[in-house]
């Protein structure tokens, strides 16, 4: 199949952009993946550091935008704190004429120096519950005067803080910082999943998987510890065909793993269980920033530094892998797969310039 590329609809209206600125079985021997490009369509542009992607009802897709820190549409991302985060909704996402609208603005965003560039954190993870209720996780932690690090519920223009996951995880890492398996205290909640009546959050800074109870109580159910570094940096979470949780990690090189957690085997009150309940399901991925399963059970992982998506069959993740979006994607982030197999992925998810992000639709 040859790659078909076209921009169908695009830029989030400038008025909305200006309103915004006003107030992320063990496969030990993995066969090399084969390219499978698919039909590639850009269905939304003008996004500010898009991260998580979630499917809603009636062919609707939501995209979390981490924002521009203290920046704006002219200056782009600027070091500091601002209310430049947002959520964009795409109705009729699978049609020839998607309808794009930025439906939530004014979310907290922070930008700081990361290596040689500026990294922005804000609304990084997103999930949809019911018709219009959105649950999101804000990145970073302990930023005074903001809800960064918090699990939030958004309904219309109302934002409710459900739990300060970042503050809890930071305190948890402080408690155990001197243990052999631990790393320096840090927290950066990055992805969220709604599974039945349960809410799970992965923290890329604390290397934890948390369960958040209805009363706002946060419990660490798993601490991921990658061999050699003590930092797995988990960035995504998806529910597998076996109802287990699958968590992807961010690492350079051919070493990023996907971890499996059986929710029934967790015990947040027992540290030994917390440290050992997660097992490696598959290896051979690179810099995972988003993950999902399709209806047939195939696993999809966005690979940030590689600029593509890698798939793995659920039955045997060591074989039958494919690469999607090679030469088309750049810094892909969150990913979601609809029931008909259509892939939606946030692209250009880490950019200092304003409005460079986009939502891509891929059909295979």
From TrEMBL:
Keywords on record: Repeat
Entry protein name: Unannotated protein
Protein's organism: freshwater metagenome
């Amino acid at each position: 199949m040859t790659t078909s590329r076209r921009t169908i609809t695009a830029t989030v209206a400038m008025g909305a952009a200006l309103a915004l600125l006003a107030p992320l079985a063990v496969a030990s021997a993995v066969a090399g993946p084969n390219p499978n490009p698919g039909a590639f369509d850009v269905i939304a542009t003008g996004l500010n550091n898009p991260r998580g992607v979630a499917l809603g009802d009636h062919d609707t897709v939501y995209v979390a935008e981490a924002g521009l820190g203290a920046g704006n549409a002219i200056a782009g991302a600027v070091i500091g704190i601002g209310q430049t985060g947002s959520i964009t909704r795409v109705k009729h996402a699978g049609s020839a004429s998607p309808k794009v609208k930025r439906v939530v603005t004014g979310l907290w965003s922070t930008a700081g120096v990361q290596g040689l560039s500026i990294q922005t954190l804000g609304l990084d993870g997103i999930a949809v519950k019911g018709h219009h209720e959105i649950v999101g996780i804000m990145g970073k932690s302990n930023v005074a005067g903001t809800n960064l690090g918090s699990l939030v519920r958004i309904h219309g223009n109302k934002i409710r803080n459900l739990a300060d996951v970042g503050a809890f995880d930071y305190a948890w890492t402080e408690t155990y910082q001197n243990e052999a398996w631990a790393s320096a205290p840090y927290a950066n909640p990055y992805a969220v999943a709604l599974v039945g009546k349960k809410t799970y959050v992965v923290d890329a800074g604390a290397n934890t998987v948390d369960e958040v109870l209805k009363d706002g109580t946060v419990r660490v159910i798993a601490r991921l510890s990658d061999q050699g570094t003590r930092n797995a940096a988990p960035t995504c979470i998806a529910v597998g065909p076996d109802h287990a949780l699958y968590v992807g990690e961010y690492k350079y090189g051919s070493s990023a793993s996907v971890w499996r957690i059986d929710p029934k085997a967790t015990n947040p009150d027992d540290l030994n269980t917390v440290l050992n309940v997660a097992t490696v399901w598959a290896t051979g991925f690179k810099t995972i920033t988003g993950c999902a399963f399709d209806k047939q059970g195939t696993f999809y992982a966005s690979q940030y530094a590689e600029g593509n998506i890698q798939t793995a069959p659920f039955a045997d993740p060591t074989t039958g892998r494919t690469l999607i979006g090679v030469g088309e994607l750049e810094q892909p982030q969150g990913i979601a797969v609809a029931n008909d197999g259509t892939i939606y992925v946030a692209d250009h998810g880490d950019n200092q310039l304003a409005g460079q992000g986009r939502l891509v639709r891929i059909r295979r």
